[in-house]
Amino acid sequence: MVDKVFCQSCGIPIQESEGLFGTNADGSKNEDYCIYCFKDGAFTADITMNEMIEFCVPHMVKNNKDMTEEKARQMMQEYFPKLKRWKSV
C-alpha cells in the first residue's frame, strides 16, 4: 500500500496516477505541491494561510458528508501550520 502524499499548501491528497502533482520551472513534477497550488515553479496564488483556509473550507464541506464549515475551519487551522508552505509563516 502506498502512503498518501498531501499538498504542502492546501492539504489535499495527491497521487501521481491522478496527475495532481504541481510542476517545477523546468516542467518536472513537484512532489510537495498540487497542480492547483504550484505551477511552473511558482505558487498559483499569493495568499496567506488564513486566506487559503477560507478558500478550502467550502471544498472540504462539499466533499465530506456531515462536515460543517466551523469544523472544517478548525481542522485546517490545526493542520495547516504543519504544512511546508506555512511552517515559516
Which properties best describe this structure?
two-stranded antiparallel ribbon; 89 residues; 6 strands; alpha+beta
Structure description:
The protein is of the alpha+beta class and 89 residues long. The protein has one domain. The chain contains three helices and six strands; from the N terminus they run ββββββααα. The strands form three sheets. It has a two-stranded antiparallel ribbon. The chain has a two-stranded antiparallel ribbon with strand order 3-4. The chain has a two-stranded antiparallel ribbon with strand order 5-6. The longest helix has 15 residues. It is globular and about 40 Å long. The termini are far apart. The mean pLDDT is 92.
